[in-house]
Amino acid sequence: xxxxxxxxxxxxxxxxxxxxxxxxxxxxxxxxxxxxxxxxxxxxxxxxxxxxxxxxxxxxxxxxxxxxxxxxxxxxxxxxxxxxxxxxxxxxxxxxxxxxxxxxxxxxxxxxxxxxxxxxxxxxxxxxxxxxxxxxxxxxxxxxxxxxxxxxxxxxxxxxxxxxxxxxxxxxxxxxxxxxxxxxxxxxxxxxxxxxxxxxxxxxxxxxxxxxxxxxxxxxxxxxxxxxxxxxxxxxxxxxxxxxxxxxxxxxxxxxxxxxxxxxxxxxxxxxxxxxxxxxxxxxxxxxxxxxxxxxxxxxxxxxxxxxxxxxxxxxxxxxxxxxxxxxxxxxxxxxxxxxxxxxxxxxxxxxxxxxxxxxxxxxxxxxxxxxxxxxxxxxxxxxxxxxxxxxxxxxxxxxxxxxxxxxxxxxxxxxxxxxxxxxxxxxxxxxxxxxxxxxxxxxxxxxxxxxxxxxxxxxxxxxxxxxxxxxxxxxxxxxxxxxxxxxxxxxxxxxxxxxxxxxxxxxxxxxxxxxxxxxxxxxxxxxxxxxxxxxxxxxxxxxxxxxxxxxxxxxxxxxxxxxxxxxxxxxxxxxxxxxxxxxxxxxxxxxxxxxxxxxxxxxxxxxxxxxxxxxxxxxxxxxxxxxxxxxxxxxxxxxxxxxxxxxxxxxxxxxxxxxxxxxxxxxxxxxxxxxxxxxxxxxxxxxxxxxxxxxxxxxxxxxxxxxxxxxxxxxxxxxxxx
Length: 723
Description:
The protein is α+β, with helices and mostly antiparallel strands. The strands form eight sheets. Strands 3, 4, 6, 10, 12, 13 and 18 form a seven-stranded antiparallel beta sheet that branches.
């Protein structure tokens, strides 16, 4: 068990804004090649060369500064909330123990902060933090707690707990206070509320009666909400324009009650909503079981029926299924409606829509893209006619590169390259460098650190080298210095070399992470790895482009022939270079191909592993344990602090595996407070997720978790960080 956990999630996909970074790389490298092309032309005079040189240098410097600025800009993470008071409410007639707002006096279990009053009928109320429950949750009951006492051994005092909604107060029964701090509660059931009602709810207390000298006080308030929610219902796309496309549906239900749900069912109905009520009505067109055909819907019909396993308290179950639109009766907007129920009890419903033809916005976007392409093409042709070679070359190369990237991403080539890169990095690190590494699926691998922690590295589009590869091909298309044979040969060599250089960059990141720890991942990726890749690519481009272009200019002067004739005939290209390029290409490609034969581990990278459905599900996705937090014999009132470094993590939550005493958990991101939650004795359940919403982190975030024993005895605690 790791008692000092330290882990890192590295997603190289979003170290910086991917689009702006893509453009900056293209500008930088295009300018380098364009400068070589223009400055080597013999028909430019000396002054023009100097001006172009100055412009290129300033543009490159500006690009570097912009890149560094965007890299080090701080990122803002989303916060998440708990079911504690977050603001003063409509009533503030009790007196806080510390001057100021009232709600901070009742948000924790410390009895040294409180609100008190000596006036009967005085009320104090508090607003709650919004966004605690899943969107559309069905709230059936609430239980409001207050921790109260009277400050006299024999004299009496009584109070009522109430809630306020829609401008009206609803009071519970009057309860007598004791002279020790005691937890009191009031429950209301039979509600038919939504998450929006909880967001606008106030909870509070009223002093009903007291005897002089009792000084009644409240030190803590919180609310427990019983709800059921279809917390996720989504399709993989919003539009399926082609006949025969596969629609993938994901859903998650959550049990927010205090009892396990067994034997429940969820019915899905894909239908055309004729009356606009977002649920199927008798006579409306729907897709029959497994989307086999269409028919007229009536009660009890469904497109798919899901028999759920038991849904534990405060836990979730998830489902995924597919359906082909081959038998859809028409091109229009469809609804997917889900009803989660057991017998006559409906826990919750939800719906999502999709279209079988492009939406108006998508059509307009396609038209806009076509217009932009036509305009850019016309401008490029104009540059060529006017012999503005710098602008022609830049515009044509840049436009072609963007087009290639979009096409390759559409067909998933970037993901294939990412998976191949993760396999080769793992192979080199494990077989040659003897690093403790485990290859995972979908472009991920886990690096085990010397201190006992681990780093899960996840590769994105930048790690696929698809940007640099597209740029290289675009340069060869428009560069007027090579024959077709030479273009093909240099493209092949350049693509293979770029892939190998990219592997070198990833290995540098892995080595630095293993040697210096996760705190240096950002430096390894944003600076060291990027600098290595940039220098290596510049050298490759010099060998492939600049060197033969300079030789062509020299031959043009020496042989007194036009530069175009020398360039297009390929006379400046030496045969030994051609053979060397071909040999290097074959050797590198062969080595890469052979690796798939000497190790079967590539299957881990290319074949997606099925998720273990026995694992608890968090936030609509099956949870994956990232790190253990184990605390031994934490004394009452004492705290333990854990710091974790992040580069990228989409969803993060905490689970309680073991806890002998109540606890408080505080969460900070980059030293900024995010959330505080308290776990009561009746909430100490195994695999219980602490938060309804995940914490979203961005590059270079640092997560701090503080765990405090709020019980009366020393206790062991075991928590897990999950995604």
